[in-house]
Every structure is written in C-alpha cells, then in structure tokens.
Amino acid sequence: MKFIYYINANLLEKEEFDRVVGQVLKKAEYRRLQKDYIDIIEKVRNTIMEWLEVILEKLFSMEAKLGTSAFGISNGIVIICLILLVILVIVFFLSMKKVIGKSKTVRTIYGEKISSSTKSEDLRNKAIEYREHGDYREAIRVGFISLLLKMNEKNLLYLDPTKTNEEMANILRNKNFIYVDIFQSLIYLFNEAWFGHKKIHEEEFYLWEEKLDELWNGVLNIEAKE
C-alpha cells in the first residue's frame, strides 16, 4: 500500500494544488477572478480530497480482509480513480475558461463599445482626434473612458456599466487612491458634458485635459492594491 500512500501524500497534496491554481490566477488576464473564484476552488479541492479519502479507506479495508493478494486490485482501482480525478480537474478548468470567456464579451461604456482587444491608448488617441476637430464633448467622453480603461488595466477599477461615476470614486477612495480628488473633478465636468449636454468651451476643456493628463500619468506609476 506504499503506492497508495505516495499518491495521497504527494500527487494530491493540498499545498501543491493551491500553488498550481494560484499561479494560474496570478496571471494578468485572470487576476480579477482570483477573489471571485477562490471559494469555488476551495470547495472543489475539498470535495476531491474527501472523495479520495473515502475510496482509500475502502481500499485499506479491502486489503485488510483479503490480504496482500488484494494489492494488485487496489492499484488498478487507484489508477481508475486517478483517471476520474484528472477528468474532474479538466472539467473544472474548462468551466473556468468558459466563465472567463464570458467576461470578455463586448460592453458598452457611455456609448463606447469595449472588448478585450480595446486598448486605453487607442481611446486616448481617439479623444485627441475629437479635440483637434473641436468636438470637446466627445473628446471628454472618450478621454474619460480611456482613463477608466487604463484604471481597469492597472486593476484599480473594474469596468462595470452598472456602476455610477460616484460609486467608482468611492471605490478609489476606499483604496486610498491619492488622486481621487482629481478623479472627482474630472467626473464633474464629464457629467455636465455627457449627461447635461453642456457646451464645453476650449479653455474649459484644456483645463480638464490637464487634469486628465496628471491622473493618467499617476495611474501609470501606481501598483494596484489587491
């Protein structure tokens, strides 16, 4: 039965399982999922371990009754169990991949369609084009969205169409984000331009853009807090 002990103690060791899954979730594309799915991973791992322990107990009992002749039978059963276990793990990660895929669907933020391929820098350049054509309302709209996307890339905010600007400001405030006051001032003019359809003058826009530049550069140098 040393073979069985080896499988239980090494191949399915709790720390090893946590380490492998942890490495996957630390990747940039999965980072947001780490907190959301850690409970699921814990439940799956515990279920697998409990299931295996029951099987091993039955095998020990079988060997005690049948003697060493049962060793070959036990090994065969363990191999079958391992195959089933591998299938369970594969199904689990395929399910996770499916959920991740859903999270990459196109979202609409303030009239702008955002997908997994949308880059904050591209939106920023688009905002500059609007500015050069004198369309300051659109420049503010797209510039603000580019900032939100950059914050999403830095894991400061998660792009959620259901959240208001004030709710996002509160999230940053709770994270002790040092530029939250600038973010709040950007929100103020954005709301007036986008929701209030306020006519934005050139001087007013450039003051807003200066604050956007300051916050943008600040975000680039900030490591998001987990």
Structural key phrases:
2 domains; 73% helix; two-stranded antiparallel ribbon; Four Helix Bundle (Hemerythrin (Met), subunit A); 3% strand; mainly alpha; 226 residues
CATH class of the largest domain: Mainly Alpha
Give the CATH architecture of the largest domain.
Answer: Up-down Bundle
Give the ordered list of helices and strands. HHHHEEHHHHH
- How many DSSP E strands? 2
The value of Rg in angstroms is 27 Å
Q: Residue ranges: pLDDT <50 for 5 or more in a row?
A: 1-13, 28-33
- What's the pLDDT, averaged over the residues? 75
Broad shape: elongated
Strand order of the largest sheet: 1-2
CATH topology of the largest domain: Four Helix Bundle (Hemerythrin (Met), subunit A)
Give the helix/strand class: mainly alpha
What does the largest sheet look like?
Answer: 2 strands, antiparallel
Helical amount among residues, as a percent range? over 70%
Number of domains: 2
**Into which percentage range does the β-strand content fall?**
under 5%
Count of alpha and pi helical runs = 9
End-to-end separation in angstroms reads 44 Å
SSE map:
Elements: H1 2-11, H2 14-25, H3 33-66, H4 71-103, E1 107-109, E2 112-114, H5 120-132, H6 136-153, H7 165-174, H8 180-194, H9 202-220
Antiparallel strand pairs: 1-2
